[in-house]
Amino acid sequence: MSDILWIQNGRIIDPLSSRDAAGDLFAVNGKIVASLSDQQKKKATIIDAKKAVVCPGLVDIHVHFREPGQTHKETIETGSWSAAAGGFTTAVCMPNTTPPADNSGTIQLIQNCIKNAVIRVYPSGCITVGMKGEQLASTGSLKEAGVVCITDDGCCIQSNELMRRAVEYANMFDMPVLDHCQDASLTEGSVMNEGIVSTRLGLKGWPASAEDIIVSRNVILSAHTGAHIHLQHISSATSVDIIRRAKQRNVRITAEATPHHLHLTDEALSSYNTDFKMNPPLRTETDRQAIIEGIKDGTLDCVATDHAPHTDYEKDREFDFAPFGIVGLETALPVTLEVLHREAGINLSDTISLLTDKAAAVLHLDAGNLQEGANADITIFDPDEVWVVDPEMFLSKSANSPWIGCKMQGRVKSTFVGGKLVYDGLRIVS
């Protein structure tokens, strides 16, 4: 393939530059350029994007690629394949690996594994040693090793004093702190949202207040310290309201929603299918609508998948004992388009923005736009193609998806990283 790329006849959407028009897109040596010379056009690889949308490569700031230590579920390489198939060209992997990524040596191991990825993968580091919530990890050495943020995702620091010290320390290094908001004293043994459905199913309920309390705590700490705290996978209507009011006071809080919390409710658990078991749990229709409103008014900053692969034998257990989490990279785009664009009426450019430049902005990543000089990370998708989710087609190692057998509208046709084709609509192109 030539180092010169010429994508023709597409609907070019670049939210950051407010570009949304039919036209061509050009790249030379892995960078977006305004035009090609006649000589370059003769050498270019030409892609016909007729009837397709051409947009920045999607950005996911919350994925679990499971390496090191849990490679039976996913590796950074297979996770990157799944991401590319979903149109993602940039991903930030969480540190709840085995061992946890709480030191520079483990980060270096992850960096070595990242070399096998077909997309751009950035590591995060732990807030605390071993993710135990007892002793701070060395944020400075983690940053030197290349992490873009710190988080104990999967766990939540219960000590308010320790969290205060963590965000103060991270602020010295201009390092965002990502928090999984969960008061553990309210959720021990809980497996789904607390409410009418949990009562009917006889499953222990997980109150939304467990999230709301920690969201409130983090807003207070951010206001007190000036530190940037990013709130992960918001699921509660009350949390959305707390964040909205914090932003009105210019508190340095950002927050994300997941495709599954935008699309599904706790009613989906009526069949006891463990592919609908996730943390935080699916909540009520009232919560779902509040999340959508939070996206529409800017309270929630972006969409992130929380891609969490598990093997079939781990998920195929009694509901109480199955692990939390679902895969989400290969279905994120059509689900987001369905809920936010077609149902909620958000225009296509603004919907794409939530998966590109707005996601990149949270962690200050060099990604998510098609401006001249930017990396030629590009996704081409057909917004109208209808397809059925088939686990045999997943490029992830795992297939624990709540959308298996469902019809989706919108499908990725090509993914480019640095101007090079990495996914052709069917397979990874090496």
Plain-language structure description:
The radius of gyration is 21 Å and the shape is globular. The chain is an alpha/beta fold and 430 residues long. It contains 14 helices and 18 strands. The longest helix is centred in the middle third of the chain and has 17 residues, at 209-225. Helix 3 runs parallel beside helix 4 (139-145) and helix 8 (237-248) packs parallel to helix 10. Strand 6 (58-63), helix 2 (76-85) and strand 7 (88-93) form a beta-alpha-beta unit. The strands form four sheets. Strands 1, 2, 3, 4, 5, 16, 17 and 18 form an eight-stranded mixed sheet that branches. The model has no long low-confidence stretch (mean pLDDT 97).
The structural domain count equals 2
Q: Tell me the CATH superfamily of the largest domain.
A: Metal-dependent hydrolases
Mean pLDDT, all residues: 97
Structure classification: alpha/beta
Q: What oligomeric state do the depicted chains represent?
A: single chain
Gyration radius, in Å? 21 Å
CATH C-level name of the largest domain: Alpha Beta
Fraction of residues in H or I helices: 25-40%
Largest sheet: 8 strands, mixed
Approximate shape: globular
Span between termini:
11 Å
CATH topology of the largest domain: TIM Barrel
Give me the CATH architecture of the largest domain, please.
Alpha-Beta Barrel
Count of individual helical segments: 14
Share of β-strand residues: 15-25%
Please mark out the parts with pLDDT under 50 across 5 or more consecutive residues, or reply none. Answer: none
Total beta strand runs: 18
